[in-house]
């Protein structure tokens, strides 16, 4: 009987430390030595001090930003209709904190796989934005008055640009996006001689640029 008790105690002494260490698993791939990476899927994702929705915010992370995953919460949490883990992440600038799993795409292999996913991610994002901004836009000055320039944007990636002072001189071409700068790039130029910075606020977009040191914006007047 005493011998059986000693064996049981020995097993528990071995088992419980292992259990304790395994409850809070790190996401480092020890076999390959590769870091586990992730891509942020949502706009203005909150980076928090602790893995709770009411925890203080440390920073905001932009959609498409690549981060390193260093840990995850022991259990899943409900936020609205979503049930997911919290992940501890580290930004490229070294700032660490927790984000909710629904805001994250985990990439478990090489940097090449991360690059491939990002390429597909931004290609899909570009397709969505093209549909959302499709329409006829007219320039506004800083007072909100309509000015000279019209921009017709198509969801297929083409555009027309012209000035009301010279409506017969139409510039046509294709556009794409520089997501690092949040810019729309007009490959054949525009009547206002610039590309546009785009900002998304809720479900609407704001376009801005400068002409002769004056900031102008564009307002959609006709949706396509």
Summarize the structure.
The chain is α+β, with helices and mostly antiparallel strands. It is 20% helix and 46% strand.
Structural features, described:
By secondary structure, the chain is of the alpha+beta class. It folds into two domains: 24-109, Roll (SH3 type barrels), CATH 2.30.30.40; 128-223, Lipocalin (Beta Barrel), CATH 2.40.128. The chain contains two helices and 17 strands. The strands form four sheets. The protein has an eight-stranded antiparallel beta barrel with strand order 10-11-12-13-14-15-16-17. A hairpin with a 5-residue loop joins strand 7 and strand 8 (96-100). It is elongated. The model is unreliable at 1-32 (pLDDT under 50).
